[in-house]
Amino acid sequence: MFLYAWLILLLPLLGFIGLSWYGDKIPKKFAGYLGCATVGLSFLVSVAALIDLLALEADKRLGHVATLYQWVSSGTFQLNLSILIDPLSVFMFLIVTGVGFVIHVYSIGYMDEDPEFSRFFSYLNLFIFSMLLLVAAADFFFLIVGWAFVGLASYLLIGFWREKTSAVLAARKAFVMNVIGDVGMVIAAFVIFDAFGSINFVDVFAAAPDKFRANDDTVLLITLLLLVGAFAKSAQIPLHTWLPDAMEGPTPVSALIHAATMVTAGVYLVARCHVLYELAPYTMYFIAATGVITAVFAGSIGMVQYDIKRVIAYSTMSQLGYMFLAMGIGVFSLGMFHLMTHAFFKALLFLAAGSVIHGLNGEQDIRKMGGLKSVMPLTHITFLIGALCLAGFPLTSGFFSKEAIILSSWHAEMGNFVFLGIAVITAGMTAFYIFRVYFYTFIGKQRNTDAHPHESPFIMAAPLLILSFFALVMGFAAPAVDAFLSPVFGREMVHYHDSFLETIAVLAGLGGIVTAGLIYLTSQDKLEFAKQAFAPIYDLVYNKYYVDEIYDFLIVKPVRAIGGFFEEKAEREGIDRAVDEVGAGVRQVSYGISLWQSGKVRSYALNMIVGVVTVLLFVVFF
Amino acid sequence: MFLTFLTFLPLVGAIVLAFMPKENEGMIKQTAVGFAAADFLLSLQLWFDFDNTTHQMQFEYSTSWISSWGISYHVGIDGISLLLFVMTTFLTLISIIASWEVKKSIREYMMAMLALSTGMLGVFISLDLFLFYVFWEFQLVPMYIIIGVWGGPRRIYAAIKFFLYTAVGSLLMLVAIIWIYFIIKEQTGVTTTDLVFITEHLDVSLDTQKWLFLAFFLAFAIKVPMFPFHTWLPDAHVEAPTAGSVILAGVLLKMGTYGFFRFNLPLFPYASNEFVPVIAWLSIIGIIYGALVSLVQEDLKKLVAYSSVSHLGFVMLGTFAFNHYGMQGALLQNINHGISTGALFLLVGMIYDRRHTRLISEFGGLSKQMPKYAICFMIVALSSIGLPGMNGFVGEFLILLGIFQVDGMYAALATSGVIFAACYILWMFQRVMFQELKNPKNMNLPDMNLREMITMVPLIILIFWIGLYPKPFMKTFDASVSHLITKVDPGNFKPKQIKEHHAALIQQEDLALLNKKLQGKEK
């Protein structure tokens, strides 16, 4: 009955194919509209799927598989091209196409002057298709396919400005990191196939609880291997280094891919496979720990960066950490809820930042901004809304979702004091760094007097307003989201009420804002003084804990050195030389033999006599 | 007879060319294309008429050849050789079109290409050991000439190296063939070199199997090429003209993997099982080693050549998984590698024709200058990496799935090759196609012309076709692989599982007795 849901995927795919073939031949405006239209229609079909799903009774909403055709069959390995429709996938459809559509519209304005406008939209459509395939997949195989496509789309979009070396390098880094994740997923799929004889979600998840005891080795292996993929996509330590670099891409890309959708794939994966993860409490614990460490790690780096997009990128990493924390302590629907609110306010923040960058003709360094409040009033107010949501200001959407996770980090069964402590500290940091950017950018005097900032056109402002609206109100949708997702996770979430912790979390956020205000609104001398005083720590954090340098030293350089060594020693000198030596040896020997064939009859006669005598002696004596 | 006709049609073409006036280049090229195209189109008929449900040889033809030695002209194809046969005619056509710009003695060049085609096709259809050997040696000659005459500056060295490597391997194979000939004569009283008969009746002890296996192994491993027998390949590729490289990668290497499927596994199943760890490790070393060395290459063709070493490692790994996934994946990956790597060599050839250099550092930013080329290159590069939706992924996935069932460790190590592939291909791609166009010599490069598009588009269609709907291709292998597995299944050679409490009671002598019995059963 959900066969029409294929339209959700096919529309953006058609957009991609159409735009990449005919993009140059149709008027530029039209290419943009076409790109938006496919995603917009896809959103409408998703809404239809939502309505159909809601019409069903809660327990009948699961496991609707829509199959197109049999894709491959090898022995017992049979695979259909099919998608899975259930509340979780529809929830993701709505976010991906909804936020995606708004960002598409924004891109019409943002990329207006780019000579390769239609190529950009074709890539965007490809990305939307890939992401939808990822969340729609009904088995691990197509999950991996979507997973890899998302990596490809991200590669193409980060490296969109292909003449810019830094962009190309960032794109490659992202792709390779993601391939590492893909490989983890592929091996996980093998283990799953080995253990269950199937890689269908429905079969595997139905069989898992009976098949394995908690913390069975196989389940631990599967869940950890899947995590490699999840961490790579969602930029969790240690596979995070690609995300900040990915900011080299155009800003709508950062908003779409590196905030609202692609990076949430890892969280989605854990939610999708929650049956397996619930069988592996050790892994859950590991997820929660990694999440919380990433949250504070990225948050601390975000506090000292000067590139407006990088700060927001680190904040994305940090918020993803919260989501993984939620997943790890088993409050799946809270994690998904934060995923949704984050998609709105983070897309908003990126797009507002994009508006700033657009208005300043490409400037991204916040030290060269300032006083934009009066010149770009709309951008200012929307950025402020986004910042308040991110900081968890009461009654904004971020407040509801983050608060719930912080409370659970103590009250949930697996919660503990450390998780809670770090989560609260990170909340403070979050508020601090985003308001640091806010104060730098919008308040005070304009620092760079050469720039002539201007407010962005309507086509960019409208998306900001739409996202602001959702960022503000979606917090109140928490019960609805919970009720909608609960059949998937098999239970209603417990909502903890603890006014003490709530107050602390709110205070942490407010404290961050106030501190940022105190430091950046008053004189800058104190700032320099603080930097001096904490110089070693500051350098460490400013240089992102030298993770890139460590990888370069530990992995990249040795691998290249080994390759070079093989090329030099084994290829040129070793194997090849040995072969050539053998060749030369053979030549020597044959030269020696050829001496016998001197052409002198006398020596032939001598040889003959020696030969005959030898043979005779042999015959006589043996 | 149809098979024979298809096989010798190119040779007829070569003979026709020999009688053409040397000066009329246009006619020579057209005739060559005509023969190759006819051969390809007619060979599709094989595919349509092929019966997927049986492992038996089809389109068989057999007649006595040298009757006193029992040598026959016996040809036929099954699921293992069908697609290789079609791919050979296909790539021959593509390479001939790609050789349009050859300046030096075009007539002789085309003759060599067509003769080469006959040699390769003969290898894939021969069902007689002696006939196989004849074709196996025969195809060496035109390839040797193509590299040696139309190759790059070090062509003589490369050609001789290519020839010697292959010849040394095949000499041992000849010895093994003669040995088998005598064994069969002794055991059944029949003097024959007929492969189908021998496959059914050959029955030798494990030790003999091992020796025979090794003799064939060397011949095929050099051809594949497996680490450490690969060093002829980069030289041959670098020096060969574009079309030569395409054929080399697309078909000649496949003769090696085909040999394992056709000879080593069915003839020496026990020995094959014994050698699994050795071959798996060599393949894995090849995968990683090839990838690492690719990473540091400065020459585009060399990079692609080493990537072949890495990719063929996957094929070998799948072959020796001895289960359905691995072997089907290996056969599919055979085809995939022919398509993707063939396409890569064509693409490298295109910029070589324009710039007469293949050094990566000479390029950069070409995507702006040559947009069509950039799109084609990107698709092919991604297919080589094994991106889902394209051909490489299906094959690699099945191979890894297959080898995973043998040993998770093998699969885990082999997958690192996938990561490295992404590194070296993307790095190369970025340095050639992206970044700023700085080198003034690249400023006015023309984009792909119609002829080049004609060679490229069919390959790209295949890349997506196999990636999105591999079933028509996979179907052809099915029955043959199933049949082969019944022979090489590791379960055939393991002592039956003994219950634990019994095992404790069985003494050393009992075990020896058991082994003897089992060996007897084998016989």
Description:
Chain A has helices at residues 6-22, 28-55, 87-110, 117-136, 140-158, 165-196, 201-211, 217-233, 242-245, 251-260, 265-272, 274-278, 281-302, 308-328, 332-359, 372-375, 377-391, 397-411, 417-442, 458-473, 478-489, 499-521, 525-533, 535-542, 547-596, 601-621; strands spanning 64-74, 77-85. Chain A has 622 residues and is mainly α. In chain A, helix 15 runs antiparallel to helix 17 (377-391) and helix 15 packs antiparallel against helix 18 (397-411). Chain A is globular, with a radius of gyration of 31 Å. With 523 residues, chain B is mainly alpha-helical. Chain B is built from 23 helices and 2 strands. In chain B, strands 1-2 form a two-stranded antiparallel sheet. The chains are: A mainly alpha (622), B mainly alpha (523). The interface between A and B is large, with 48 and 56 residues.
Give the tags.
heterodimer, A: 622 residues, mainly alpha, 26 helices, 2 strands, B: 523 residues, 23 helices
Our measurement of the CA-to-CA distance between the termini of chain A, rounded to an integer number of angstroms, reads 93 Å
The largest beta-sheet of chain A arranges its strands as 1-2
Counting DSSP E segments of at least 2 residues, the number of strands of chain A comes to 2
Strand order of the largest sheet of chain B: 1-2
Overall, the morphology of chain A is: globular
Uncertain segments of chain B are: none
Q: Give the uncertain stretches of chain A in residue-range form.
A: none
Rg from Cα of chain A: 31 Å
- Separation, N- and C-terminal Cα atoms of chain B: 37 Å
Q: What structural category arises from helix and sheet content of chain A?
A: mainly alpha
In helices, the fraction of residues of chain B equals: over 70%
String of helices and strands of chain A:
HHEEHHHHHHHHHHHHHHHHHHHHHHHH
Proportion in β-strands of chain A: under 5%
Which quaternary structure do these chains form? Answer: heterodimer
Mean pLDDT metric of chain A: 82
| SSE pattern of chain B | HHEEHHHHHHHHHHHHHHHHHHHHH
